[in-house]
Design brief:
globular, mainly beta, six-stranded antiparallel beta sheet, Jelly Rolls
Length: 254
């Protein structure tokens, strides 16, 4: 199979990525004039809305959306199993640089913090993937990455926010041995109902709380669409772009 076998030459092609037809999150990479840029379809998870019993009044911070990842890396290898990416502190035994970002909390006062994480190497030893979550430079009262080997929501206690608006959040690696963080949820509920391991429920809940489910589907037009971002697909996209074509490369993971 040559590298053009997965391509479709069309004079114009309108792409509509609709919720009811998409069975998993799809990333659309567009070959632009200044190089390769990416566009993420905002409505990309099919299915019913999250259970009405789940909490959705808080502020969700997905770890992969940190403005500065520092020494943490965005891990994509379990994307289909988790419904998203997470941050990984792979420092070969040396703690990596902090990941940092800011979030907007709508009001001052007490906020309870929940962190979705896991202990990737559970055993009769000190867990290797330990890390801290820091809010405005102060660590939460809990050290994460040592409670449960499966992905889970863990309470980090509460923080007092003096003023509504931008609040700094950081991830601090303590070991350099692959600490893992998926998401952080800020809520003023004392006992929030958070999604479990069901991938569809978790993805739908994240979309609703983050506001992605309310965003409109964007329609784009291309000269060439390539399905599959392997070596052949990428080579075809670059070759077509060099000939002046407007190209879209569709890949099912970042």
């Amino acid at each position: 199979m040559d590298m053009w076998s997965k391509t479709y030459f069309l004079k114009t092609l309108k792409i509509k990525i609709m919720n009811q037809y998409s069975k998993r999150r799809e990333f659309l990479r567009v070959i632009g004039g200044g190089g390769i840029t990416s566009w993420l379809a905002p409505n990309y998870v099919i299915g019913a809305k999250p259970s009405s019993a789940l909490s959705r009044s808080g502020v969700l911070l997905e770890a992969s959306s940190f403005a500065k990842t520092g020494g943490w890396k965005i891990d994509t290898q379990h994307y289909l199993q988790m419904g998203g990416n997470y941050l990984l502190a792979h420092g070969m035994g040396k703690p990596v640089e902090d990941a940092e970002t800011t979030i907007n909390l709508p009001s001052a006062g007490k906020w309870n913090v929940w962190v979705r994480n896991r202990d990737w190497c559970k055993g009769d030893w000190e867990s290797p993937g330990r890390f801290e979550v820091m809010v405005e430079g102060k660590p939460l009262e809990v050290t994460f990455g040592q409670a449960d080997e499966s992905w889970h929501w863990q309470s980090g206690g509460s923080v007092e926010i003096a003023k509504a608006g931008k609040t700094k959040v950081s991830l601090r690696d303590l070991t350099g041995f692959d600490g893992r963080c998926d998401a952080i949820y800020f809520t003023q509920e004392s006992d929030p109902q958070l999604p479990g391991d069901d991938l569809k429920e978790l993805s739908d809940w994240k979309d609703e709380v983050s506001g992605r489910s309310k965003e409109k589907v964007e329609e784009l037009t291309f000269d060439l669409v390539i399905v599959g971002g392997g070596i052949s697909g990428c080579g075809a996209a670059l070759a077509a772009r060099s000939q002046g074509m407007k190209v879209a490369l569709i890949q099912d993971r970042p």
